């Protein structure tokens, strides 16, 4: 069986200090920024994913070690392995394993280990979202009211799984909770998910939501949500804001 240390060594072998400095700037790791204190060793996402594929059999204990690491790429790799394990369990129809992985994911979330936007975006819909598709989704509304930005982003990004199944209902419910959120990472995420509702589910559903809620939406959210509209339409909806 693979170990966390072996995965860490594999990442270290391709780490690039120059890349690390660039990533630390990109992910806003300075004091007072949303990623303050996060540590990068300089491995790009495609490389992290490729390496993670070799460690699909990591144990919960090893995954915990990686999630608790100060190194961003270690946490990303752990989540990539968890997504793969969840997808394998889904394919096998192993509901017990799916439930265990979701609880494991939520535990990592609660202790603050899914703590940057790429970590959320690469995992929320694939684990929590897929699990909740045919189950009650109340916890997403509760997460949307969290004081922790990453929990709020998990709430809205999890609904991407439902959108891909043709169901926009929960996206609109969670979006309404988050419409007046002041954090730009939430404003962007909400706008992105609304845009996907229009593209993948029902354009008129999106139009109706915007017309009802335009005055409550930030310019950022409205801009993302209408990104695929004609210029004249975007101008019109901005006039309602």
Automatic annotation (TrEMBL):
InterPro entries: ARM-type_fold, DNA_alkylation. Pfam families: DNA_alkylation. This is DNA alkylation repair protein.
């Amino acid at each position: 069986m693979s170990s966390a240390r072996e995965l860490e060594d594999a990442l270290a072998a391709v780490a690039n200090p120059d890349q690390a400095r660039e990533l630390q700037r990109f992910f806003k790791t300075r004091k007072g920024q949303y990623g303050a204190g996060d540590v990068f060793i300089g491995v790009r996402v495609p490389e992290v994913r490729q390496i993670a594929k070799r460690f699909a059999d990591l144990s919960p204990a090893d995954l915990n070690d990686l999630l608790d690491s100060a190194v961003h790429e270690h946490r990303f790799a752990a989540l990539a392995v968890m997504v793969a394990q969840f997808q394998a369990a889904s394919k096998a129809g192993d509901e017990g394993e799916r439930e265990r992985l979701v609880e494991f994911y939520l535990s990592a979330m609660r202790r603050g280990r899914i703590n940057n936007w790429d970590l959320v975006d690469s995992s929320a819909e694939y684990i929590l979202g897929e699990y909740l598709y045919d189950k009650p989704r109340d916890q997403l509304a509760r997460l949307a009211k969290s004081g922790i930005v990453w929990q709020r982003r998990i709430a809205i990004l999890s609904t991407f799984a439902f959108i891909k199944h043709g169901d926009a209902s929960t996206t609109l419910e969670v979006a309404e909770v988050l419409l007046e959120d002041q954090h730009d990472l939430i404003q962007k995420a909400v706008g992105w998910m609304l845009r996907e509702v229009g593209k993948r589910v029902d354009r008129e559903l999106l139009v109706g939501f915007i017309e009802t809620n335009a005055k409550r939406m930030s310019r950022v959210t409205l801009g993302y949500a209408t990104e695929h509209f004609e210029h004249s339409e975007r101008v019109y909806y901005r006039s309602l804001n």
